[in-house]
Amino acid sequence: MEDIELARSLLEEEKWNLVVVKKGQVLFSSRERGIAPFFQAVQSMGKSLHNAAMADRIVGLAVAMLCLHAQIISLYAGIASQGALDMLKGQGVTVSSKSTVPYISNYDGTDLCPFEKLARSCQRPSQLFAALQSLFAEGDQ
Predict the structure, then answer these.
(1) Contact 65, 122 (CB under 8 A)
(2) b/e map 123-133, b = 16+ CB within 10 Å
(3) Is residue 140 part of a domain?
(4) Segment 48-73 mean pLDDT
(5) Second label for 67, Cα 20 to 30 Å away, from 36, 43, 89, 139?
């Protein structure tokens, strides 16, 4: 089974929110919601994520930019924003999604997801990564 198929099946069958697979091995998985688990994986695992496959329940611009920063090569999303799909495809990442939406909303559906807003203000994946490092470091204090 290809890495992306393994990641997708674990996401859907085991009810994970995020699964990262490389060379047939699960490198990371989480049932937590939001961007924090993937950010923590990128921060702690670094280059070991290069050329991995990922399945995530919700993928917006921030997750897409983190995928580029981590050099993920294939992605499956339950729900993905059109902007995220376009960005990833434009950088040569193999992507598919169950459904596509114009953008990712916040939890109560009243506005854009705050991480989607943050990603829109960043020019490069490394810039978003640095902004998230600062944001999550503030939350730890």
Answers:
(1) yes
(2) eebeebbebbe
(3) no
(4) 97
(5) 139
